[in-house]
Amino acid sequence: MNVENYIRQTLKDHKIHLTLLDPEEQRPEEAVLIAKEAVSGGTDGIMLGGSTTDSAELDATAKALKENVDVPIILFPGNISGVSQYADAIFFMSLLNSSNPYWITGAQALGAPIIKKMGIETISMGYLVVEPGGTVGWVGDAKLIPRIKPDLAAAYAIAAEFMGMKLLYLEAGSGANQHIPEKMIQSVKKSTGSIVIVGGGIRTGEDAANVAAAGADILVTGTIVEKSSNIKDKIKELVDGIRSAKD
Ligand code: 1GP
């Protein structure tokens, strides 16, 4: 399966929802149960990653998911330990607004040879961390984009497109109390032809509808599955919100 093609083909039909799982948060069998529920609720793929990752846990979870779930398994690495041969693809990402070159090109250079050897599909992605930024903002030494400065996000998005990155991820930080402002999403979407991913703080169908209507092509939710007693219904609420949006 070529995951980038899957994303582009799916987007011709509908905007995408991805469920983010942190392999440290549950055992592989539980991750499979959660992922199956999410798929039955309408999620289009599973992202796997976290700010700290144990490679053995990641491998076990990626393998179990690949064997048991029919949607793509995409790595969302928080560092060089976030690589597994069992995933379908990796978001090969650069934290564009980090003040530390390690997170812009350093970790990427250290991880690239092993990724090449494993033959995992890479999908190039610019990653921008916006206020409040959460753990990833702190770990990634991000010079956080102020929420009231959509033009700054757009400037980075244009630069990312000029550098050949195919996707642009606007991240508010996992567990953020507010998702990325709609004005910022609109501004980024208007400025580039890149596929725009938005994550952090999306919790309700209404949030999802607003983010999708502002121009996000792909919406990511993580925290919500950890907090929900009925994962299928919660994901369905988000997916219904996304599909109801007109942009
Ligand atoms: C984190 O944007 C994602 O990278 C998901 O955020 O946990 O707030 O859904 P939440």
Automatic annotation (TrEMBL):
Pfam families named in the record: PcrB
Binding site for Mg(2+): 22, 51
InterPro entries per UniProt: GGGP/HepGP_synthase_sf, GGGP_HepGP_synthase, GGGP_synth, IGPS_HisA/HisF
Transmembrane domains' residue ranges: none
Binding positions (sn-glycerol 1-phosphate): 169-175, 200-201, 222-223
Protein name: Geranylgeranylglyceryl phosphate synthase
Role: Prenyltransferase that catalyzes the transfer of the geranylgeranyl moiety of geranylgeranyl diphosphate (GGPP) to the C3 hydroxyl of sn-glycerol-1-phosphate (G1P). This reaction is the first ether-bond-formation step in the biosynthesis of archaeal membrane lipids.
Subcellular location as annotated: Cytoplasm
Reaction(s) catalysed (UniProt annotation): sn-glycerol 1-phosphate + (2E,6E,10E)-geranylgeranyl diphosphate = sn-3-O-(geranylgeranyl)glycerol 1-phosphate + diphosphate
UniProt cofactor(s): Mg(2+)
UniProt keyword list: Cytoplasm, Lipid biosynthesis, Lipid metabolism, Magnesium, Metal-binding, Phospholipid biosynthesis, Phospholipid metabolism, Transferase
GO molecular function, one term: phosphoglycerol geranylgeranyltransferase activity
Single GO cellular component term: cytoplasm
Family: Belongs to the GGGP/HepGP synthase family. Group II subfamily.
Pathway: Membrane lipid metabolism; glycerophospholipid metabolism
Coiled-coil segments on the chain, per record: none
Organism, as annotated: Methanobacterium spitsbergense
PANTHER family named in the record: GERANYLGERANYLGLYCERYL PHOSPHATE SYNTHASE, IMIDAZOLE GLYCEROL PHOSPHATE SYNTHASE SUBUNIT HISF/H IGP SYNTHASE SUBUNIT HISF/H
Single GO BP term: glycerophospholipid biosynthetic process
EC number: 2.5.1.41
Chief site of localization: cytoplasm
